[in-house]
Design brief:
49% strand; mainly beta
Length: 128
């Protein structure tokens, strides 16, 4: 059974930082690309960041570029998302997602439909 479990969300003041984690089980993690998405109330789910299965490639939404950092530790089946310089507009439920990648070690994916597995989400609230 595949599970993705996010943690690390919470309430933080604008300008503050959080570190989100996504721990995977039930898959050979090193063969999966991972993405983070977020969904604010009344809005559609949007792409935040992605990392390739090897960790060699990363990609960010323009809205978070330079403030968020995605990384992975395949030995620990974990992907992390460092959120710095948080803004009120970053308030959302953050989800991690995974998809199997057979050959393309450096590929990442930005569409929610690219992903097979999703976590339950973790709430990030930024107060202004």
């Amino acid at each position: 059974q595949v599970q993705l479990v996010e943690s690390g969300g919470g309430l933080v003041q604008a300008g503050g930082s959080l570190r989100l984690s996504c721990v995977a089980s039930g898959i050979t993690f090193s063969t999966y690309a991972v993405g983070w998405f977020r969904q604010a109330p009344g809005k559609e789910r949007e792409f935040v960041a992605a990392v390739s299965r090897s960790g060699s490639s990363t990609f960010y939404a323009d809205s978070v570029k330079g403030r968020f950092t995605i990384s992975r530790d395949n030995a620990k089946n974990t992907v992390q998302l460092q959120l710095d310089s948080l803004k009120a507009g970053d308030t959302a439920v953050y989800y991690c997602a995974a998809r199997g990648v057979t050959y393309a070690l450096g590929s990442y994916y930005t569409r929610s439909t690219d992903y097979n597995y999703w976590g339950q989400g973790t709430q990030v609230t930024v107060s202004s």
